């Protein structure tokens, strides 16, 4: 990509297209095929030296003037007439769509002029297009938005992972402004930013036999350098923006990315002839780089055989991350291990945020204040409500059925018989949600739920009547199959419904379920109510808003003639697990009301939020497994212990899939699911851990940190020195796995009186030492240095009674026996704690 070094053409553009003109521009002034003075031609081609948005589909402008006159059929997303093509979300006619698009263009330009970045982020215009507009309408004398409009170069320069899809782009620009040098023009800074990205992101792909045979160049979307605007669907009709490619053999072509599953895809253009020309063999690698004009270069047979982005080369960029490691992808599987009280669970929460919202951590800083901990936990809770992170504790009774899937018994409300359903465990549920993509979305979903009733609705049998669901989605309908094409529009009661059923040949009692279903569908459901479409008992696939009254539409092919019109707000594929919305699983009943306690209103609001993060493609998911070593890992993970390996996950070169034993469904572990375990080494040492688990996880030691207690004193007692001294003694008398963690004493930072310290020792430290040493009080006394203290300052003292008083003259029966007790008075004296240090004398 080339960058201009002056603002001459920019100034000319503003003279031709001042903001005032945008408010009154006509469709022809906005877009006319072949007119080099129309607004979108200026932005795409004449201003290309201020950051390119050229190439790809003209739909990126919302509406465009057509060159051809060929009749084209639209779909639920795209519309055409003989003059224009446009996105249906902006309007049903070109006039209506243009009015909406012009309003959005003006809003972006005004927000850029006033520095309101958050409003630009919320614009429904495409990301690159809206930020291109924003660049040219920001204050020319003091610009802050660089002319780079795709996310990945911005993320790279800030040291954030390429998978970060949560940080608003406006916030990225604000952070970048702090890295721009005082005397550096916006053009020079933009070029430096872009060149840093190009130089540091060569991408290499290891070829397999299958890829060579089919002419595929597979792409890991998490680390690939391609912008999201190039991500297309599986069919030739579902293409996205294209880019120009050139191989080292001279072949040139334009293509987009065919996305096959979340996180993985391939170039849509096949490279069979190129592979033949270079004599490609399995194991060879293709390196993808980008030249200064934006063309992607493919080079073959490089020396390295790594898969993914190669290590960054040295650069003169001054952009250094607050945490350099944030630029690297965190390990997919890791275990935090250490003695009790070292903050493993708290650190697991922080590591989850490093994966899910790294920019939040950067803003939060590295201090250890209570306010930071509070904000950290609050953000974690928000992500948990969105279903992006889950927490589970392993124990001796935890099983494969809890973790992956198992059979669950329940009573069928219709037959009143016991039935057994396959129910997903916490890990499978998280994996399924990680695979889910949002395939339908309405930008103005209602967030105010008061006054609305929410209904569960089945749209045909999910296994045998998929066409019913597809028809409902396409036409904006909810269909019900009860009633044999009978008309229930005049029914005012259940008795009326019963009579209509009878007239159509169905003799039903008032309590039969078909009458209940029709009564709910016809009489109880109202306009403005919400419907949740289930898929079986354990998943849901759409959320909609009822927009019309009941009507009968007779059908010859089936009985689905009972109709309500619905505006579909969200649709997911594959379906989301019920836990993303519900507190318990769905019933078999076709339709019924979801009440508080059954549905989570917080989760529903999260799903309906404008950014709707619950089903973002490639959005990471995190499972925190507390006390991972307390469960039977082999029994809990089962065959999935192999599938969690990075190289065996879906989309990887050696991806594996298994058939699950209960559901008989094929299953693989997505590449965007992270496992974070915690392990208390006092319960079980690392050496005793399952070997299969050990080799599939990265282990991060979390030892006691006496330095975190630096500056904390109680009655002149240096708590850092006390902890360090006791731990040295424990390491010698027992081992390092049973040391004491600093977290036991962190509360003294805010309440450093002696009574608080006394409570910590009496209720936490002494009981823990009793457990460690199996009530060997002599060694406990050594840890506390009691044997060197003066009387009155010893925590552990011999009992005041003698053995002879209890057993008589025992002789050699119990010669070594000693009775011990705690001297509670000693716990309230500063000298007792000071005596832990040194020779015990105070």
Automatic annotation (TrEMBL):
MF annotations from Gene Ontology: ATP binding; ATP hydrolysis activity
Record-annotated AAA+ ATPase domain positions: 330-707
SUPFAM superfamilies the record matches: P-loop containing nucleoside triphosphate hydrolases
UniProt cross-references to Pfam families, sorted A to Z: AAA_5
Protein name: McrB
């Amino acid at each position: 990509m080339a960058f201009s070094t002056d603002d001459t053409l920019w100034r000319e553009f503003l003279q031709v297209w001042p903001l005032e003109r945008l408010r009154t521009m006509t469709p022809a002034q906005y877009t006319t095929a072949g007119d080099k003075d129309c607004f979108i031609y200026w932005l795409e081609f004449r201003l290309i030296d201020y950051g390119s948005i050229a190439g790809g589909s003209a739909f990126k402008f919302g509406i465009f003037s057509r060159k051809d006159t060929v009749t084209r059929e639209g779909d639920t997303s795209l519309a055409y007439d003989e003059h224009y093509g446009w996105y249906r979300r902006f309007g049903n006619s070109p006039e209506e769509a243009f009015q909406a698009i012009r309003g959005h263009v003006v809003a972006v330009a005004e927000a850029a002029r006033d520095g309101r970045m958050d409003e630009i982020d919320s614009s429904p215009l495409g990301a690159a297009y809206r930020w291109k507009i924003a660049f040219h309408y920001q204050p020319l004398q003091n610009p802050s938005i660089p002319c780079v409009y795709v996310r990945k170069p911005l993320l790279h320069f800030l040291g954030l992972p390429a998978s970060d899809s949560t940080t608003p782009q406006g916030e990225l620009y604000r952070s970048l402004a702090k890295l721009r040098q005082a005397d550096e023009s916006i053009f020079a800074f933009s070029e430096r930013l872009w060149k840093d990205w190009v130089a540091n992101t060569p991408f290499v792909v290891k070829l397999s036999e299958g890829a060579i045979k089919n002419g595929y160049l597979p792409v890991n979307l998490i680390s690939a350098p391609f912008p999201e605007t190039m991500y297309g669907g599986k069919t030739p009709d579902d293409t996205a923006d294209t880019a120009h490619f050139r191989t080292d053999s001279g072949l040139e072509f334009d293509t987009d990315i065919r996305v096959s599953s979340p996180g993985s895809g391939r170039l849509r253009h096949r490279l069979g002839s190129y592979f033949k020309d270079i004599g490609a063999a399995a194991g060879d690698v293709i390196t993808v780089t980008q030249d200064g004009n934006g063309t992607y270069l493919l080079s073959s047979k490089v020396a390295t055989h790594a898969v993914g982005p190669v290590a960054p080369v040295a650069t003169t960029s001054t952009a250094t991350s607050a945490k350099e490691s944030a630029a690297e992808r965190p390990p997919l599987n890791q275990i935090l291990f250490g003695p009790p009280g070292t903050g493993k669970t708290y650190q697991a929460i922080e590591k989850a945020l490093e994966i899910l919202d790294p920019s939040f951590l950067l803003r939060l800083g590295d201090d250890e204040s209570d306010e930071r901990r509070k904000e950290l936990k609050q953000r974690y809770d928000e992500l948990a409500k969105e279903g992006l992170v889950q927490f589970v504790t392993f124990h001796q009774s935890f099983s494969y059925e809890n973790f992956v899937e198992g059979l669950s018994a329940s009573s069928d409300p219709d037959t009143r018989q016991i039935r057994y359903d396959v129910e997903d465990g916490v890990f499978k549920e998280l994996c399924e949600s990680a695979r889910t993509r949002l395939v339908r979305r309405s930008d103005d979903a209602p967030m105010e739920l008061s006054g609305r009733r929410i209904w569960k609705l089945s749209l045909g049998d999910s296994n045998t009547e998929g066409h019913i669901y597809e028809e409902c989605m396409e036409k904006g309908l909810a269909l019900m199959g009860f009633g044999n094409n009978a008309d229930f529009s005049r029914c005012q009661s259940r008795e009326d419904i019963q009579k209509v059923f009878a007239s159509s040949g169905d003799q039903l009692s008032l309590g039969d379920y078909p009458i209940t279903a029709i009564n709910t569908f016809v009489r109880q459901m109202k306009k403005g109510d919400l419907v949740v479409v289930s898929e079986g008992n354990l998943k849901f696939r759409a959320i909609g808003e009822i927009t019309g009254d009941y009507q009968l539409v007779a059908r010859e092919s089936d009985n689905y003639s009972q109709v309500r019109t619905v505006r579909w707000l969200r649709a997911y594929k594959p379906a989301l697990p019920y836990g993303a919305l519900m507190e318990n699983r769905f019933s078999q009943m076709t339709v019924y009301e979801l009440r508080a306690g059954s549905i989570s209103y917080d989760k529903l609001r999260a799903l309906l939020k404008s950014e709707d993060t619950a089903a973002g493609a490639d959005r990471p998911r995190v499972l925190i497994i507390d006390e991972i070593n307390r469960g039977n890992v082999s029994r809990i993970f089962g065959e999935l212990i192999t599938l969690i390996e990075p190289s065996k996950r879906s989309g990887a070169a050696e991806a594996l899939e298994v058939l699950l034993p209960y559901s008989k469904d094929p299953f693989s572990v997505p590449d965007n699911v992270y496992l974070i375990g915690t392990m208390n080494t006092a319960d079980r040492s690392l050496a005793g851990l399952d070997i299969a688990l050990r080799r599939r996880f990265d282990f991060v030691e979390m030892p006691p940190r006496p330095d975190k207690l630096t500056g904390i004193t109680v009655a002149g007692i240096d708590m850092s020195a006390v902890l360090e001294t006791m731990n040295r003694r424990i390491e010698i008398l027992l081992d390092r796995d049973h040391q004491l963690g600093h977290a036991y004493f962190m509360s003294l930072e805010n309440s450093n009186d002696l009574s608080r310290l006394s409570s910590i020792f009496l209720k936490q430290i002494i009981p823990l030492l009793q457990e460690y040493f199996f009530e060997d009080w002599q060694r406990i006394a050594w840890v506390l240095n009691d044997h060197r203290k003066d009387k009155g300052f010893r925590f552990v003292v011999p009992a005041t009674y003698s053995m002879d008083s209890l057993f008589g003259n025992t002789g050699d029966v119990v010669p070594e026996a000693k009775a011990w007790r705690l001297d509670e008075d000693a716990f309230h004296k500063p000298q007792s704690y000071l005596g832990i240090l040194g020779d015990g004398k105070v």
